[in-house]
Amino acid sequence: MSDITVGNRDSIDTGPPGGGGGGGGGLRSALGVLARQREVTVLAVTIVLLLYFGLKYPTTFVSNVNAVDLLSENAAPIMIIAIGEVFLLICGEIDLSVGFIYTLSPFIMYFLITYYHFPAFLAIIAALLMGAIAGWVNGFLTVTLGLPSFITTLGTGFVLNGIVLTTSHAYPVEIPAKAETLGRFIGTDPYSQIIWAVILVAIFHIVLTQTRWGLHTIATGGNLLGARESGINVGRIKYGNFMITGVMGALVGLQVAFYNNTVDPSAGGYNPMFLAVTAAVIGGTAMLGGQGTILGAFLGAIVISTISDGFNIAGINANPQPIIYGGAILIAMIANVRLARLRAQGSGV
Amino acid sequence: MTTGPAPAPAADGDALRVEHISKRFGAVTALTDINLRLGKGEVLALLGDNGAGKSTLLKILCGFQPPDSGRILVNGEEVVLKSVDHARTLGIDAVYQDLALINQLSVYHNMYLNREKIRWPLLNNRPMRQEARQHLKAMGVNIPSVDVQVARLSGGQRQAIAVARSVYSDAKILLLDEPLAAMGVKEAAIILDLVRDLKEQGEVSVIIIAHNYGQVLEVCDRVNLLQQGQITFDKKSSETSVVELTNLVVAEYRAALEARHRSA
Fold first, then answer.
1. Tens of pLDDT along B202-258?
2. Which residue of A5, A30, A229 is in closest CB contact with B100?
């Protein structure tokens, strides 16, 4: 019987990684530890930012109104879209069109109620279904026709935007009265958006870390050929993650429309999508696939929102904000690369 | 090239038989009329130069791609392999040259990739972790922990994990694609020991694809040589030698060289 240790190269600490965390199951994996280290860093940044603005502006920043602004109006849409983008980025894809699914979704609801007399509940389901279909189309173009998702979703984004502008004649409309009751739960009530976001973040964090779907998403982005050779249906994973992202975009579109009590053809677009990708990257999601966390993106969204909200309260011009976002993305990416290099050195590879 | 040996007479207890398999990719003929048999518990070395068609044959046998013609028999019964998963249900499993390991996942998640233990809807990590640890220990593979990412392991450890994954998924026919490629002496020894152990247990039949004759000859029962899409040589390993195999390949190389000179 061979009993040779090939460990001559690795001077790795052999203690069970993550043993100190006491987290359940897969969280104890090395991946979990690295991810959590990253989440801890982002959490620290979040706390520092909240403390800074909280202590500096104790009456305006620390208020019910501002909590709603920061969490529900700013952070929640970014968080929910980021859930989809994290899954896509991990499996090696991206969706640039999700912001236009966001724009179209409340119009679908509006048209179905106003012109086709759908019950509000069915119209809302149909709007979410549209998100899933748009995601399926992105999956079809990317997976089945083999085009890069960066290009396909750029194209579908334009198409969706065109559909919105054509059908709405570029005019905003009011939320149909029939939908107002349901709308309260979806986005009108001040805290509804952030409650949805927290619930969805919790669910999809578990999906990513504790289910086959999550494991296969990581495998697909980490080693596409290897995942395929292992018998994983990588196409199905990608289709599924495009569809999850589409539904998330559609949900956010409805929420924002209800919150503002208007269906606006200029809502959505590229900005919420890019903010979601920014949140994902700040939270430790790698653009090259195989790595990322939902909790990190959740915290990343709070960081982004706190910066923009804090600047507003401080009366600072909004113009320099993109500089801060840009800086945050760059710092996050540099940290990602450094971390990977450090890890590689640790294993002697 | 002469035509390969005719299909060997049907022998009882063949784990795998391949009859008249051919495969073309457009204008390129990768395999012409391949006949091959693998006895139960036997270790067969499939040798050949780069481009001889070894990997194409492996991908057909593991269900990754279908042959153009010919048939495959598993335990005497003809099968049409529809997919990698389907081949696996028949007990055929391949360890690819690239190992198909996911660097970002832990050792035990890799060992159970796509056959995870589930407590619906969640992964059941505890038994996967425990059993992965036991299997690796039983195979004499030492790694720091089954929780560590495979990215942090050496080449030999990674290969051992890939082999262990197949063996413990109840594979009865194991296809190893260049298991010793780019591997140090010590690391290669682990893999050869693993194969030797499998042979002693006698429950798994193994095809090793390789082009390092010396190392493979030590552990295999029989050698087949694949040249330009055909099996041109089939002998027991006790009846052949590294010198004979090398001479065969050198002869092929010389012939190719002369052909080139003539056409030039």
1. 889 999 998 778 888 889 999 999 888 889 899 998 888 888 888 888 888 888 888
2. A229
ipTM given for this complex: 0.83
pLDDT tens column, B148-176:
999 888 888 888 898 888 878 778 999 99
**Residue A255, domain member (yes or no):** yes
What is the total count of domains within chain B?
1
Q: List the Cα angle B199/B96/B51 in 5-degree steps.
A: 105
Q: What tokens appear for A77 in the block?
A: 């849409």
Interchain CB distance below 8 Å, B149 and A210: no
Residue whose pair of structure tokens reads 């080139």 in the numeric block: B260
**Could you give phi then psi for residue A25, rounded to 5 degrees?**
40, -125
Here the tokens at position A50 are: 């909240």
Query: Is B137 within a domain?
Result: no
Give the domain extent around B216: 14-99+172-263
Q: How many domains does chain A have?
A: 1
CA distance B47 to B212: 8
Q: Would you say residue A191 lies in a domain?
A: yes
Query: What is the pLDDT at residue B246?
Result: 85
What is the extent of the structural domain holding A125? 25-335
Pick the residue from chain A with its C-alpha nearest to B157.
A6
Residue A59 is assigned to a structural domain of this protein: yes
